[in-house]
């Protein structure tokens, strides 16, 4: 089984990718309910942590139920990365993860995220700084390279393992691709099957069905799969993949009752963690994803996105439960949410 230091994971674990403005505690709770084996915080700026920035500190929040749990940091300065690792350790996560994969301009322009792919020596130095700053296992999330001409992930993987990195998650695109085209898992497979490599290698990119998860498991030999955008609006993907890997049979689509229950729990957790105003406002973008496929939903959706109290929203959800009683959802392809302007890793 692919263990990360002392962290014991099940055979072929499923990881929830850290996604800015998505993988907060309310969303992670739903994914944990549905079988996610390892989860991470939203990515956190090392500079923000050191400045004691409120938004950065808030992202350190997690619950005992979420374990094993990792905090992901990013930055381009060795001292800041080491200090932020020490801060992360104070809240007692199970591991610290470094983001060397985020392709968005505001991160790359600061010499962080995928920008570091242009300088492997710097990547090694930043990683060493984090390892020096914590006794926890340190893992890495990265991409194949900066562009088509610099796919250096095989060298990167060996050098990071040599300095003590405990696991590596690889997204099958370069930075220049952003999220366009298909993810290429060929190099991920080469890293995993390199006889020098002995740490867990997790693949990431375009896993949107149980069938593809099993196919890629068998084809590339990865130790587990990290899922990001496909889980947005569809946390059931984790249980569906687990069931399919075990039985080679497809679970029925989530029922109306399950979808309403997910809406209720996400709302409850969102209000609890963010407060009623922000919690309700930020929840509005999720209802369409969870309830996609219901006919004639326009009137209900209008109420869901305009009401301002959890009680009123729950009343609408109950109305919907009764109105659509007996409706059977058809299995449709899981939608990869268009999230390019954010940073799903």
Give a description of the structure.
It is a single chain. This protein has 345 residues and is an alpha/beta fold. The protein folds into 2 domains: 234 residues, Aldolase class I (TIM Barrel), CATH 3.20.20; 68 residues, Non-ribosomal Peptide Synthetase Peptidyl Carrier Protein, Chain A (Orthogonal Bundle), CATH 1.10.1200. The protein is 42% helix and 11% strand. Strands 1-2-4-5-6-7-8-9 form an 8-stranded parallel β-barrel, surrounded by 5 helices. Helix 11 packs antiparallel against helix 12 and helix 12 packs antiparallel against helix 13. The two termini are 24 Å apart. The relative contact order is 0.13.
Provide a compact summary of the structure.
By secondary structure, the protein is of the alpha/beta class. It has helices at 25-33, 46-50, 54-58, 78-89, 105-108, 120-133, 153-162, 186-192, 210-220, 237-247, 256-274, 276-290, 298-306, 310-323; strands spanning 14-16, 38-40, 44-45, 69-74, 95-100, 138-143, 167-171, 201-204, 224-227.
How many structural domains in the coordinates? 2
- The CATH architecture of the largest domain comes to Alpha-Beta Barrel
- For CATH, the homologous superfamily of the largest domain is named as Aldolase class I
Q: Over all CA atoms, what is the radius of gyration? A: 20 Å
The secondary-structure element order is EHEEHHEHEHHEHEHEHEHHHHH
The stretches of 5 or more residues where confidence is low (pLDDT under 50) are: 340-345
Query: Looking at the structure, what is the overall shape?
Result: globular
Average residue-wise pLDDT: 91
Number of strands: 9
Proportion of residues in β-strands: 5-15%
Which structural category do the helix and sheet elements fall into?
A: alpha/beta
The largest sheet is: 8 strands, parallel, barrel
Distance between the termini: 24 Å
The percent range for helix content is 40-55%
CATH fold name of the largest domain = TIM Barrel
The first-level CATH class of the largest domain is given as Alpha Beta
Spatial order of the strands in the main sheet? 1-2-4-5-6-7-8-9
- In DSSP terms (H or I, runs of 4 or more residues), the helix count works out at 14
């Amino acid at each position: 089984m692919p263990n990360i230091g002392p962290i014991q994971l099940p055979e072929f674990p499923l990881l929830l990718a850290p996604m800015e403005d998505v993988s907060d505690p309310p969303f992670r709770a739903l994914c944990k309910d549905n079988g996610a084996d390892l989860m991470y915080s939203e990515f956190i700026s090392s500079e923000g942590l050191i400045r004691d920035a409120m938004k950065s500190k808030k992202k350190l929040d997690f619950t005992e139920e979420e374990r094993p749990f990792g905090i992901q940091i990013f930055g381009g300065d060795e001292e800041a990365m080491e200090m932020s690792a020490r801060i992360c350790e104070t809240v007692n996560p199970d591991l610290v993860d470094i983001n060397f994969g985020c392709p968005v301009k505001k991160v790359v322009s600061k010499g962080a995220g995928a920008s570091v792919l242009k300088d492997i020596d710097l990547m090694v130095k930043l990683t060493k700084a984090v390892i020096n700053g914590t006794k926890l296992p340190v893992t890495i999330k990265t991409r194949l390279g900066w562009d088509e001409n610099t796919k250096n992930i095989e060298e990167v993987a060996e050098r990071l393992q040599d300095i003590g990195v405990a696991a590596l998650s690889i997204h099958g695109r370069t930075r220049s691709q952003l999220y366009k085209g298909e993810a290429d898992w060929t190099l991920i497979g080469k890293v995993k099957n390199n006889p020098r490599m002995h740490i867990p290698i997790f693949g990431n990119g375009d896993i949107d069905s149980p069938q593809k998860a099993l196919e890629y498991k068998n084809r590339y030999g990865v130790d587990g799969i990290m899922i990001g955008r496909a889980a947005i609006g569809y946390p059931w993907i984790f249980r569906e993949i687990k069931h399919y890997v075990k039985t080679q049979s497809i679970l029925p689509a989530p029922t109306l009752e399950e979808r309403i229950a997910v809406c209720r729990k996400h709302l409850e957790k969102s209000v609890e963690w963010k407060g009623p105003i922000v919690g309700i406002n930020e929840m509005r973008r999720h209802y369409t994803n969870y309830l996609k496929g219901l006919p004639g939903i326009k009137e209900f959706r209008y109420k869901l996105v305009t009401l301002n109290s959890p009680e009123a929203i729950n009343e609408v959800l109950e109305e919907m439960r009764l109105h659509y009683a007996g409706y059977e959802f058809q299995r449709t392809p899981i939608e990869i949410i268009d999230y390019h302007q954010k940073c799903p890793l």
